[in-house]
Amino acid sequence: MRIGYGFDSHAFKPGVPLILGGLPVPHTEGLAGHSDGDVLLHAITDALLGAVSAGDIGTFFPPTDDRWKGADSALFVRTALEEIATAGYRIVNLDSVLILHRPKIVPIAGEIRASVADILGIPSRNVGIKAKTPEGLNQDGVAVAHVTVLLEE
Amino acid sequence: MRIGYGFDSHAFKPGVPLILGGLPVPHTEGLAGHSDGDVLLHAITDALLGAVSAGDIGTFFPPTDDRWKGADSALFVRTALEEIATAGYRIVNLDSVLILHRPKIVPIAGEIRASVADILGIPSRNVGIKAKTPEGLNQDGVAVAHVTVLLEE
Amino acid sequence: MRIGYGFDSHAFKPGVPLILGGLPVPHTEGLAGHSDGDVLLHAITDALLGAVSAGDIGTFFPPTDDRWKGADSALFVRTALEEIATAGYRIVNLDSVLILHRPKIVPIAGEIRASVADILGIPSRNVGIKAKTPEGLNQDGVAVAHVTVLLEE
Ligand SMILES: [Mg+2]
Ligand SMILES: [Mg+2]
Ligand SMILES: [Mg+2]
């Protein structure tokens, strides 16, 4: 078995769509970023790559490369899945926390979970989606994701 | 086996008791929050729920529900323990980090550990309690908890 | 098996060398701290100690103790390795994320990985080194490390 951990953060900005775990989420703002700003899929990508010591999202998809401008972040996840498959591993389960002031995640957590499970090609029961508001942290303008993953041979 | 990760943060505020891992801690301030503000037990609850993909503390105990006003957070942990038992799992070990400016945790880490182990119903040797001050992070007014947990069938 | 998690943060400051994972990194600033400020090795030390519930870096190496002033943080890691060996465990794999504005980590991630693997006495393929810039978090003056570790008997 192997363990992986991923972190990501993106600032909210007006005028772009909000995408979380591959799911378009109706909201007044989206997340800034070279790609589609999907903070959760980026942290998942990094957790998977890290679990097999295969570098990180920046190694594979440098933000300086115009190819990834506005990219669908599911593409990054698929590359990470290829890396873990090549290394001979598959996902046991994945857990995550989104830290953001708005929107409320509880009503859409099931949909985000289904979207993430679909992108990962695993059952929903092996994907945890949780959320917190950033109490006391003065970071209401940013979305943060922490992801942990367990792999088996 | 399954892995879970939980995060929580609460701002310090005067005039309320400080409770960490179920242990009342003598201090000039406590933690704001709808319940007793026990940032460590909240992160533990979320790590357990996330490990079995059972939602999060906000799903089970919405802050809008008056029943949980001032609640003993051990109640939240017990609900999470029921969820992992129902899913057919038990705790192998749990590790945690508290990030807070004060009070000093080293002198009371053993007591917090015993309290957490007691609430979880597992031996102290399977509970890790660690602490850091938030060096460079400008968050002296808040307590943060990160928790990771490993489950087995 | 057992799981561990470690966190650390240190503010950047001019006039001191930057050391990351035991590797001296050419940069305009280093990290403040009682020891050599190696935020990554400190988080690794804590992840290892936490995985076997053996306290934390502050328990073993109090910052009030002059012996650890400017200390090589590899010393802290070695103590944690002794603790996990005494408890009857060894490292399966370790994953990490550094969150810092500068310097760029991608070009030196391989060297940091080799240095960490060497200090831990494990193959590089079992060490994950990743990095993020702190997008939206207003913490450009600080380096943060998150580390997760999986142990087996
Ligand atoms: Mg990103
Ligand atoms: Mg809470
Ligand atoms: Mg440190």
From TrEMBL, chains A, B, C:
Record bears the keyword Metal-binding: yes
Residues the entry annotates as binding a divalent metal cation: D8, H10, H42
GO MF term (any one): 2-C-methyl-D-erythritol 2,4-cyclodiphosphate synthase activity
Catalytic reactions of this protein: 4-CDP-2-C-methyl-D-erythritol 2-phosphate = 2-C-methyl-D-erythritol 2,4-cyclic diphosphate + CMP
Entry annotated with the keyword Repeat: no
EC number: 4.6.1.12
2-C-methyl-D-erythritol 2,4-cyclodiphosphate synthase domain ranges (all copies): 1-150
Highest taxon of the lineage: Bacteria
Cofactor: a divalent metal cation
Alphabetic keyword roster: Isoprene biosynthesis, Lyase, Metal-binding
Record pathway: Isoprenoid biosynthesis; isopentenyl diphosphate biosynthesis via DXP pathway; isopentenyl diphosphate from 1-deoxy-D-xylulose 5-phosphate: step 4/6
Binding, 4-CDP-2-C-methyl-D-erythritol 2-phosphate: D8, S9, H10, H34, S35, D56, I57, G58
Site (described: Transition state stabilizer): H34, T133
Cofactor binding annotation: Binds 1 divalent metal cation per subunit.
Top class in the EC scheme: lyase
Role noted for this protein: Involved in the biosynthesis of isopentenyl diphosphate (IPP) and dimethylallyl diphosphate (DMAPP), two major building blocks of isoprenoid compounds. Catalyzes the conversion of 4-diphosphocytidyl-2-C-methyl-D-erythritol 2-phosphate (CDP-ME2P) to 2-C-methyl-D-erythritol 2,4-cyclodiphosphate (ME-CPP) with a corresponding release of cytidine 5-monophosphate (CMP).
Family the UniProt entry places it in: Belongs to the IspF family.
Subunit structure: Homotrimer.
UniProt-recorded name of the protein: 2-C-methyl-D-erythritol 2,4-cyclodiphosphate synthase
The organism of origin for this protein: Terriglobus aquaticus
Gene: ispF
Range within the parent protein: 1 to 153 of 202
